[in-house]
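Pasting as-is:
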Amino acid sequence: QVQLVESGGGSVQAGGSLRLSCAASGYTNSRYCMGWFRQSPGKERERVAALYTGGRSIYYADSVKGRFTISQDNAKNTLYLHMNTLKPEDTAMYYCAAVRPPCSIDGTSRQYSDWGQGTQVTVSS
């Protein structure tokens, strides 16, 4: 059974940093698209960052470029999102998602088949 479990959310002041983790289990191979999405109340789920675990290509939303970094640890089957210089507008529930190929790192949420339960990030001004 495929499972994604996020952790690392919390409350920080603007300008602070957080690192989100997504532990993946149940996948039968090591190549798939994985991404981070976020959603605030009343808003659509937004792409944040994504990568293909079998390659080097990485996608970032314009709103987080230069501040967020997505990375993976294949040995631990874990995806990370390093978030620096956080802003109040980054406040949202953050979700990890995954899908087997064929897939695109700039795919929308509709592409993804597996989702974690989410972890809340709150940035105060």
